[in-house]
Design goal:
The chain is elongated, with a radius of gyration of 27 Å. The protein is built from 14 helices and 13 strands.
């Protein structure tokens, strides 16, 4: 009798121990799953510019956030100043398109550090400035933007026969529009240079056509993007220098030099930016977006694919996945760091 009772007690203890072990194992599995997908059940709304050529880096970011479990909504699209305001008001959660220097005014007007969070450099070493075709530069010894103060030099770039140089510039509302307008006034170019603004890539398509027809061209651009692969620096075109740094916000101590030339624009970096409340409530997303980084040359190469016909949204998403596969170890390390963020 005693032996039977001992056997029954032993079975009961074994069952209880097994149940406890199973429960602990189950809780551990649940915890591990939660760590692997810290964004599960959380909706996140991106906001990007309307420029298709800048969607590539956004798709890289979206893929990672989805891997962390976030439900990423279709991105909203708008111009940069409105983009900052939407993030500040909580109408969107993140972007990967904030230029640290160029968009500084937009950032401050939208609330700055009180409502927004900057989280890492998505693309470091971004260049901006003015270029002309190399043939005209060498023939007329043009090296400075201020050479255009001379009517005979300005007329070389006159596309509409009004006697002024036609400078292919920016979309209304872009940060570069403010800088170009400021430069024209600051360097005394108002009588000899027109800032042609509108749809940038449509204007540049016309500029490239004129170059291919053998005409002189003057334009603003930035790198990374596909134009640098069509009008190649030091082969087709050259940068123009400015006599001294003079920026609209008065921050003239910022670095504007590249390869010994003062380009007049800050050598910039493009950053991830988040709504502050969202950033604080979602440390995994904030950590991941702080680590996402691609090179200017990678984005320029992808943009050139778009220019060569691979420009559908399906193509852009495929380009992003190809980039991730080519950089898998680094990408996985970003995800791992995000999963352990507190």
């Amino acid at each position: 009798m005693m032996q039977s009772r001992l056997k029954a007690l032993s079975k009961t203890l074994f069952s209880l121990t097994a149940a406890a072990s199973f429960s602990a194992l189950t809780m551990s599995s649940i915890a591990s799953a939660a760590e692997a997908m810290p964004g599960k059940g959380v909706e996140i709304t991106p906001i990007f510019p309307t420029i298709a050529e800048e969607r590539f880096r956004g798709e890289i970011a979206i893929a990672g956030l989805e891997a962390l479990g976030y439900e990423v909504e279709e991105p909203k699209e708008t111009e940069y100043a409105t983009l900052m305001l939407a993030l500040s008001y909580g109408d969107a959660d993140f972007s990967v398109h904030a230029w640290e220097e160029l968009h500084k005014t937009f950032y401050k007007k939208a609330g700055g550090d009180d409502t927004l969070v900057k989280a890492g450099n998505v693309i470091p070493g971004v260049l901006q400035g003015y270029l002309i075709d190399k043939k005209t530069a060498e023939k007329h010894n043009i090296t400075q933007l201020t050479d255009l103060k001379k009517p005979e030099i300005a007329k070389l770039f006159d596309a509409d026969d009004d006697g002024k140089a036609d400078l292919t510039g920016c979309n209304p509302g872009w940060g570069c529009e403010l800088v170009i307008d400021h430069h024209i006034e600051a360097y005394g170019l108002g009588d000899t240079v027109n800032h042609n603004r509108g749809s940038y890539f449509a204007l540049m398509a016309d500029t490239i056509t004129r170059y291919n027809e053998g005409q002189s061209i003057l334009y603003y651009t930035w790198v990374p993007q596909w134009i640098a692969g069509v009008l190649v620096e030091n082969e087709d075109v050259v940068w123009l220098e400015v006599p001294q740094t003079d920026l609209p916000d008065g921050n003239n101590s910022v670095n504007t030099s590249f390869n010994g030339k003062n380009l007049g624009f800050a050598v910039d970096q493009i950053q991830s930016i988040l709504n502050k409340d969202f950033a604080e409530e979602n440390p995994a997303a904030t950590k991941f977006l702080s680590l996402v980084q691609i090179s200017a040359s990678d984005e320029s190469a992808q943009n050139l694919k778009m220019q060569n016909g691979e420009k559908s949204m399906k193509d852009i998403k495929r380009h992003a996945q190809e980039w991730i596969s080519a950089n898998q170890a680094k990408y996985d390390s970003w995800l791992e760091a995000a999963r352990t963020a507190m």
